[in-house]
Amino acid sequence: MLRDITLGQYYPVDSVIHRLDPRVKLLATLIYLISLFVMNSFTGYLIAALVLAVLVKLSRVPFRFMTRGLKSIIIVLLISVSFNLFLTPGTELVRFGFLRITREGLRIALMMGVRLILLVLGSSLMTLTTTPNQLTDGLEKGLGILKRVGVPVHEIAMMMSIALRFIPILVEETDKIMKAQQARGADFESGNIIQRAKAMVPILVPLFISAFRRANDLAMAMEARCYRGGEGRTKMKPLHYERRDRIAYTVIELYLVICVILRMVPGVPV
Amino acid sequence: MEHKALRDICLSIPDGQFIGIIGHTGSGKSTLMQHLNGLLKASEGAIYYNGEDIYEKGYDLKKLRSKVGLVFQYPEYQLFEVDVISDVMFGPRNQGLSDTDAKARAEEALRMVGLPEETWEKSPFELSGGQKRRAAIAGVLAMRPEVLILDEPTAGLDPEGRDDLFRQIRALHDEEGMTILLVSHSMDDVARYTDQVLVLDHGELKMTGTPEEIFRRYKELETMGLGAPQITYLVHELKDIGIRFESRPDTVDEMRDAILKLYKEAGGKLGKEVR
């Protein structure tokens, strides 16, 4: 039952997007997300959607995989869209009893919906085309400047990759403990909310103990191999930029310019 | 991409047997075990327990799980209570017993696995590895199962702890009449303790029979990444140099008897006194 959870949902195919340097992808995602919040016209969203469509096509990730992430936000999406739709004051368009839809409400609701969908799709494109390891490598190198002001960038990146690595292990462990307790007659599916919360104790206690044990073992194993933080540590696959990365940066700059122009040009509220 | 963990498995387990299950890692042993008490549901086929189809609508799976006790590999990782006795009481409590009854059951189970009384009030995390293992097994026994399934119960125990535990499991079979299924990687243990052996390979049931019948086919077992008990190999090597036994010993005790028999037949002319 727990195995259905997909985290770090990397989709392994070979494409230009997959081969891009993770730093490029991180920056691109960041700019894309910001641009979605800054935009205030449908023209802008149309451009953003088109850009995303081209990128998805290039990444060779099936669209079905892209939309998977949307399932989890469907409720948030419905709530925010309907709130904006019904509660925005302005010129009235239609009325059902006490519910009324205004021109402004319709506009904001539509924008909100498009924005949320693009947000999720945009960020899942990154996680689908970048392995968790590449991601943390990219973060470590990309945030390297912060090291000068005393932020332990390497340690944070290492913690992230360990955490990601441990997710499947802990999921499997939970599954095993749940089964073992079920074999002793434990019941996780019936009862009220308090009974169900109580039923979690026989899972959580062993799970925590095993997590601590594993953490301890891992720390020991790392020390046994002379790990002592990022200082002087070399990489097996060091990141360096290629031609395609420079092209990608140019594309990002271009996109940024278009966004700024769209925002600056007055009187395009369409 | 579809992978079938088990296919074409057809077997019946008569009451009161001690059955060994052997198979290479990934052969489907653990998967099979988890089907037997309904933790996993087969995509096709049926399982009958005492003549009742456990997949039938309305069948009480919770009750089945208390009748078919399953001890997972490294069961000590499921301990969670503040003291040993409450942990063992977890199963009986889930069966709906009162605290006093559950406690009586727990004490009985703890005695069965030979855990000394002074450990009962201790935190399970203070016990030694072997004691933890026993406490966890007691946790399943306290439900008074009719069938006990053990997945590698002695993995990671020292030789003494292993022998002790096996002796107790054997006693559960001999004295309490429990049906026991034992998953093991140790051919010697299987030869020594079980009455019937099932051999799984790549999700299929390849052989069934008494240990003697199974280990006679050790060449086939080797192609499945398994083997035979040490003694079986010794018997075959002796055969090559002309020493033959009437019986086919697979365990140290059987071997001792066979050698003594040969010795006596030879008239005890080998010189030294043998006790």
What does this structure look like?
The complex is a heterodimer of chains A (270) and B (275). In chain A, 68% of the residues lie in helices and 3% in strands. Chain A has 270 residues and is mainly α. Chain A has a domain at 9-130 and 240-270. A two-stranded antiparallel ribbon of chain A has the order 1-2. In chain A, 20% of the residues are buried. Residues 1-7 of chain A have low confidence and may be disordered. Chain B is α/β, with parallel strands linked by helices and 275 residues long. Chain B folds into 2 domains: 18-210, 3-Layer(aba) Sandwich (Rossmann fold); 229-275, no CATH class. Chain B has helices spanning 29-36, 61-67, 84-94, 99-112, 129-141, 159-176, 187-193, 211-216, 218-223, 230-240, 252-265, and strands spanning 18-23, 48-49, 52-53, 68-71, 147-151, 179-183, 196-201, 204-209. Chain B has a 6-stranded mixed sheet with strand order 4-5-6-1-7-8, with helices on both faces. In chain B, strands 2-3 form a two-stranded antiparallel ribbon. In chain B, helix 3 (84-94) packs parallel to helix 5. The model of chain B is unreliable at 271-275 (pLDDT under 50). Classes of the chains: A mainly alpha (270), B alpha/beta (275). Chain A binds chain B through residues 176-177, 179-187, 201-202, 205-206, 209-210, and chain B through 34, 37, 39, 62, 65-66, 69-72, 75, 77-80, 90-91, 94-95, 125, 139-140, 143.
